[in-house]
């Protein structure tokens, strides 16, 4: 007999919650729609910087010397991967493109040790050039 009043109370409470909303009224979602992400412009890749290894390749081509440029690859400790010359050459090209150069006359690439902050270091040095097309 005690269970009957508890069941009736539960039915009345659940019945009252069903009547609080109109069946025609749509249920509003609490989740917000994400705002569309702004379109980011694609980064502009600089024009490739050509590497000349011999000054004779520049004979007959008009060019302007923009200054000396270098690139390096550093091995911080004995456990790190060794420095390599291709990475130093690539950084040389990147640094030359920052100077608005479209070519580099490569002077030398060397691996040295004893540089402060590096156990061993590969360094490439060259001249940044702006070679004009005829």
TrEMBL record:
Keyword list (alphabetical) reads:
Cell outer membrane, Disulfide bond, Membrane, Signal
Q: List the disulfide bonds.
A: 74-118, 109-124
Region (Disordered), start-end ranges: 26-45
Sorted alphabetically, the Gene Ontology cellular component annotations on this record are:
periplasmic side of cell outer membrane
Q: Which biological process annotations from GO are given for this protein?
A: intracellular signal transduction
Q: Which stretch is the leader sequence? A: 1-19
Q: Which InterPro entries match?
A: RcsF
Q: Which domain of life is it from?
A: Bacteria
Q: How does it sit in the membrane?
A: Lipid-anchor
The record's subcellular locations are:
Cell outer membrane
The cross-references to Gene3D superfamilies, in alphabetical order and at most eight, read:
Hypothetical protein apc22750. Chain B (3.30.110.70)
Biological function: Essential component of the Rcs signaling system, which controls transcription of numerous genes. Plays a role in signal transduction from the cell surface to the histidine kinase RcsC. May detect outer membrane defects.
Q: Which family does it belong to?
A: Belongs to the RcsF family.
Its protein name is Outer membrane lipoprotein RcsF
The species is Buttiauxella gaviniae ATCC 51604
